[in-house]
Design brief:
about 650 residues; alpha+beta; four-stranded antiparallel β-sheet; two-stranded parallel sheet; elongated; disordered C terminus
């Protein structure tokens, strides 16, 4: 009976193995097992698809759906598996460390919506996921296309391999992002109905297009640009003091004197009294005549800058403009980093969705094996329950990954300030973004030269110096000169030919000297304040210099660590896949347990996540290093970034 039971167990295991075409590769020799695993044990290379938030969940992720034991496999998939199995795997030695010349990606991930991972074999490496046209149909199988280069711009000698294209004169990248992503030109738009904020389309964009959209639509850059214009007009306001003031004034008036009217009335009373005493008729005292006049004055005033106070004020305004321009540059660099970080986080969430989908497929396969063994009488109900619980857990984790994916999509949409009815997915493959060509010491020195934050502190010190000079000049004598030309015309109502009437002109010239001898120490206190500002700017420069060095070193060390993690995670993925294959074979043969299979599936999921995290962390580290150095690849502080 014992021999018969062993024969039955082996027969059932073999029947299960050959009845599942997806597991047929397990019968091959171990030398080919690393790259010839079933689709349920690895993440498939797939095309860019729409966001999972706009599509229905996959039926395979529902543990309540009936699961077929013998799932058919297409001929193209079998042929692809045969090609992968017949080709030796490529090791991670082709990847480049920092300071090396040529970048390479040891393993890549392709994304868009729910991003599938690429396989590790050279067949997958030579067949990247093709980019799908916006709003186009989703292809059912990957189509071979030319590899996507990791650096789309020429490499400039003596500079790092910059993964972003150089800036155009106006700071706008020529990437031609989809026009449907443009926001409403009205900044005061206030949606009032659900239709105004409903997602109607999803666009796949590259990282370069994302940076382009951020530069075009960012409210932060728009505000900074408006502040630059404000400072430019402030400079023009101060430069106006170089020219004299010319004023023209004209006064037209008609006056009837109230005092004259009272005088005439008093004189009339006197005449009436005289007439009463003499008995003669009263005489008229006269008429209070009005006066019409027109007075025109042209006045010229000019303050002579004897001690340079006016020039110091103008220079301070110019330095303030420079400070605003450097702030625009700083915010542009930070915006590029924030955009790249949000894009890589979206790629990470896409990869997590793909990994969780593969974990669900692995759990479904384990459930099918457990149910088959139970039907054959050699399995237990406990193993089936374990597989069902594991599948339910994986489905839950997939739901969490899709939630994080949607959040990452909306975070990127917020930074890019796109249309309210549009959503975004990542079109670039998840792969090693590039390499860093400078040594640590060269990177630190380059950061000292390029960072606008350091230049801002020097400009702030110059502003305080110019303000000090202007205050000191204000304590010295101030000389102003001026002149006026006056034209006066009068036309009184008095018909007397000897009354004052007609036109006349005149002029005046003046010079004024003002010297503030004592102001209670106010000017001296203002000078002391500006001297304190100079000391603060110098101290902050010292502080920021140390901070910049720490940021460069932190990003550089993180980049090295992430590169090493990529190599380590590659080996971990291969080992975990092989361990899962062996655990499943042992379980099918009746010499292993369902717990071993579940643990192997968990280890594979962890290894896939570690590999994804290593690649994304490397790209984030490279972006952080580019931000820490700034102004790449030109290495120049520009007036208008």
């Amino acid at each position: 009976m014992r021999v018969f039971r062993q024969i039955a167990i082996v027969g059932v295991g073999a029947a299960i193995t050959f009845s599942n075409p997806g597991q047929s590769a397990s019968a091959q020799p171990p030398a080919q097992s690393q790259d010839s695993l079933a689709p349920s044990n690895q993440l498939e290379l797939g095309p860019n698809v729409r966001s999972a938030s706009n599509t229905a969940p996959e039926p395979a992720s529902d543990p309540q759906q009936p699961i077929a034991l013998n799932a058919p496999t297409s001929e193209s998939q079998q042929q692809r598996e045969a090609n992968i199995a017949s080709t030796p795997p490529t090791g991670p030695s082709l990847a480049s460390k920092p300071q090396q010349a040529a970048p390479a990606s040891p393993s890549t991930l392709s994304q868009g919506g729910a991003t599938p991972l690429r396989g590790l074999g050279p067949t997958d490496a030579q067949q990247p996921s093709p980019s799908r046209p916006n709003n186009g149909p989703v292809p059912s199988s990957p189509v071979p296309s030319s590899p996507v280069p990791s650096s789309p711009v020429p490499i400039i000698q003596g500079t790092p391999n910059e993964s972003f294209p150089p800036l155009t004169p106006r700071g706008i990248l020529d990437t031609k992002p989809p026009a449907s992503l443009e926001p409403n030109p009205n900044p005061l738009l206030f949606p009032t109905s659900p239709e105004d904020v409903r997602i109607e389309q999803t666009e796949a964009i590259t990282l370069q297009q994302a940076i382009d959209l951020a530069r075009r639509n960012s409210q932060t850059l728009q505000i900074a640009g408006q502040q630059v214009e404000q400072s430019r007009f402030a400079v023009r306001e101060q430069q106006a003091a170089l020219y004299p003031d010319l004023n023209f004034q004209m006064d037209a008036s008609r006056s009837v004197s109230a005092g004259g009217e009272l005088g005439i009335r008093a004189n009339q009373r006197r005449l009436n009294a005289v007439a009463n005493r003499t008995g003669q008729p009263a005489l008229q005292a006269g008429t209070n005549f009005g006066n019409n006049s027109l007075n025109s004055t042209l006045q010229l005033n000019y303050n002579i800058d004897l001690f340079g106070g006016r020039r110091a004020t103008i220079r301070a305004a110019e330095e303030q403009l420079r400070l605003r321009e450097l702030d625009v540059e700083r915010q542009a660099e930070q915006l590029r980093f924030d955009t790249a970080e949000a894009y890589y986080n979206l790629q990470n969430s896409d990869g997590q969705v793909a990994i969780r989908q593969a974990s669900v497929r692995n759990a479904q396969q384990s459930l099918r094996d457990a149910e088959a063994l139970e039907r054959a009488g050699v399995g237990t109900r406990f193993a089936v329950l374990q597989a069902q619980a594991n599948l339910a857990n994986e489905v839950q984790q997939l739901s969490v990954a899709r939630r994080d994916q949607r959040v990452a999509q909306r975070r990127l949409a917020e930074i890019l300030n796109i249309s309210q009815s549009a959503n975004l997915t990542a079109a670039d493959p998840i792969e090693q973004a590039g390499s860093w060509r400078l040594s640590l010491e060269e990177s630190i020195v380059q950061a000292f030269k390029n960072r606008p934050e350091l230049e801002q502190q020097l400009v702030q010190r110059d502003i305080s110096k110019q303000q000090t000079r202007a205050i000191q000049a204000g304590r010295l004598p101030q000389l102003s000169v001026g002149g006026s030309y006056n034209v006066l015309g009068q036309d009184p109502d008095n018909p007397d030919p000897y009354a004052t009437r007609g036109w006349a002109d005149g002029y005046s010239i003046r010079a004024s000297l003002t010297w503030s001898i004592f102001d209670g120490g106010a000017a001296k206190a203002r000078v002391s304040q500006r001297n304190a500002d100079i000391a603060i700017a110098e101290t902050r420069f010292d502080q920021l210099r140390n901070q910049v060095r720490r940021e460069v070193e932190q990003a550089y060390f993180g980049l090295e660590s992430s590169f090493e993690n990529i190599e380590t995670s590659e080996a971990g993925v291969l080992q975990s896949r092989e361990a899962l294959r062996l655990a499943r074979l042992r379980f099918q043969a009746g010499v292993g347990t369902q717990t071993d299979v579940i643990q192997a599936e968990t280890d594979l999921t962890r290894a896939e996540r570690n590999r994804l995290s290593a690649i994304v962390t490397y790209n984030l580290g490279l972006s952080s290093l580019q931000r820490a150095v700034s102004n790449l690849p030109t290495n120049n502080l520009s007036d208008a970034p």
